[in-house]
Structure formats: C-alpha cells, structure tokens
Write a structure and sequence with these properties.
It is a single chain. The chain is an alpha/beta fold. It has one domain: 4-Layer Sandwich (Metallo-beta-lactamase, Chain A), CATH 3.60.15. The strands form 2 sheets. Strands 1-2-3-4-5-6-7 form a 7-stranded mixed β-sheet. A two-stranded antiparallel sheet has the order 8-9. Strand 1 and strand 2 form a beta hairpin.
C-alpha cells in the first residue's frame, strides 16, 4: 500500500523544469498514436491508451488481440483497423485480465459473434476487479501513473501515453467462450495458431 503523510511539507504544483527528465520526454515519442504494420497481415495500434491492440488479418476475417481499456478507446482503434480491412472479427484473444486488455471487447464484437479466447482464470480475475481489488488497484494506478499531476506535468505513464479510464468511461467486457489452462490450439479467420 502506498501512502503519503506529512505536516511539514507544503504541497506545490510547480511546473517541471524543461529538460528535467529528457529520457521520459523522449520515451513519449514511442507512444505516437497510430497503427504500425508489424509484418504481412499483422498490425498493432499504439498510443490509444496504456495497452496496444493487435489486428491479425486472416483469409476470411480478423483476430483481435487485446481490446483496450474502454469502449471509447476501442472505437478509435477499430476505426483505424477498418482503414486496413473490413473483414469481420472472428476471434478476440485476451492475453490477460488487466482492464487495459479486456474492456473494449464489445466494440470489436459489434454485429458479429466472435470466439473469445482467454486463460481459464480471466473471467474470475475480471470479476475481482469489480468486487475485491478494484478500489485498491484504481487508487494505486491513479498515483502510479501520475493522474493527479497538473496538466503539462504528466509526460506519459511509462507503458503508454495516458490512462484512458475516466469516471464516465464505458466498459465492454465479453465473457470468454473458449478457455484453456496450459495450451490451446485453435483456428480462426482462416489462420491457425497455438
């Protein structure tokens, strides 16, 4: 648990001096919003939140790996992916249960019924976010990622440009339809993977 207590320290929101953290400012360049082609038929959306979303284009559809933190972020990413292909989403893969990987799924699944692949503990961990650990993680994340810093002082959150979840954000988790404990082989969108 992180906390701060002091009576003798005066709170100050003085601006960060120019050049105070050149490496962190330089690091922000990798979060430039856009979609990068990784190789034939594989694209990654960077800079739309603290996680990336991946598009894998198969013969008759696409696979989405991780769905962003919110419905709003996912909609922005999907709009960019639709500039690449209009093929339907046949599968969504959750790499793990963190909010920045699962809460945009409804956007990618709109109008279709894709298989949702995940580890067999994913749904339980997502439920825990809303019950046991959500308030703790939320408070920690707001401090850790600099959300309370005044405008202009938060350069990035280290793993992305900003935390996208806000009080009015919409969340769109979809329960996994195909789960596994150790390994899984599956075929989706005319592409096989294991």
């Amino acid at each position: 648990m992180w906390f701060y207590a002091s009576r003798s320290v005066k709170k100050s929101h003085a601006p960060i001096p120019v050049g105070a953290n050149k490496s962190l400012a330089e690091h922000s360049k990798i979060f430039k919003k856009g979609v990068e082609k990784v190789r034939d038929n594989i694209y990654v959306a960077i800079g739309y939140g603290i996680a990336n979303s991946i598009l894998i284009e198969g013969q008759d559809g696409v696979i989405i790996v991780d769905t962003m933190t919110t419905v709003e972020e996912a909609a922005e990413v999907l709009a960019e992916f639709r500039k690449i292909t209009s093929k339907p989403v046949k599968a969504i893969v959750y790499t793990h249960s963190h909010p920045d990987h699962v809460f945009g799924a409804q956007v990618f699944a709109a109008g279709v019924t894709p298989e949702i692949y995940a580890h067999d503990t994913t749904e339980k961990q997502v439920k825990r976010l809303f019950t046991e650990i959500g308030p703790i993680i939320g408070s920690r994340s707001m401090r850790m990622y600099g959300s309370f810093l005044p405008p202009g002082q938060m350069l990035n959150v280290g793993i992305g440009p900003f935390v996208g979840m806000k009080p009015d954000s919409k969340l769109g988790f979809i329960r996994p339809t195909k789960t596994f404990a150790d390994t899984l082989e599956a075929e989706a969108a005319g592409s096989s993977s294991s």
